Amino acid sequence: MSIQTEREVDQPIPNGSAVGIDMGIARFATLSDGTFYAPLNRFKRHEDRLRRAQQAMSRKTKFSSNWKKAKARVQRIHSRIGNARRDYLHKTTTTISQNHAMVCIEDLQVRNMSKSAAGTTEQPGRNVRAKSGLNKAILDQGWFVFRRQLDYKLAWNGGYLIAVPPQNTSRTCPCCGHVSKDNRQTQARFECVECGFEENADLVGAISVLRAGHARCACEVSGAVMPPAAGTHRSDSGAAQCRP
To answer: Which of 20, 77, 92, 124 pairs as cysteine with 209 (C-beta 3.0–4.6 A)?
Structure first.
């Protein structure tokens, strides 16, 4: 028996202010208010154990009783990795969505970022092993699922998710607005070559993402042209402005 009912639901009122998020490998998510979440890296922790279990399964006669036991062992490891990742992502996105009214995030193309660099026989790829490790780390973080969960959880709480282009977010100085690849000499450190401003690179990226999100909102309201990526500059009051 199925019964369908209808009831009125009050429009939820979001809590908190706006925040920008920079996604990364060393830090899973860095918020523009200085908060950051360490990566879980569940697959990396179980990688050796999983490899040994898969090797043991490959030595068994296919479809035999021992092969089925070995396969069940591999499946249990995969299930443990997936459950831990989902639990971590749900807890993180719930905390962020309940404490912020607007979340700005980079519009990352995870599928393109995690493509193989092996290339072809005629045009072999470069740094294939390093790119393979990066691909594993990206997929282990669950960036796409993180964004999807943030989207519907913010909607439940009356908030908004704004995706902005990721170009130059970690190369733009939040103090003077100078954009240069030389501003980020290392993965973790940002130092502006123009004004000397120094800060954690992921935090700088999160601040740039937040300003780009504010600029996107302002442009949609005013009908102006959206500036590319982190292409915002501060007025004397510090507010982001649109550039046609």
So the answer is: 20
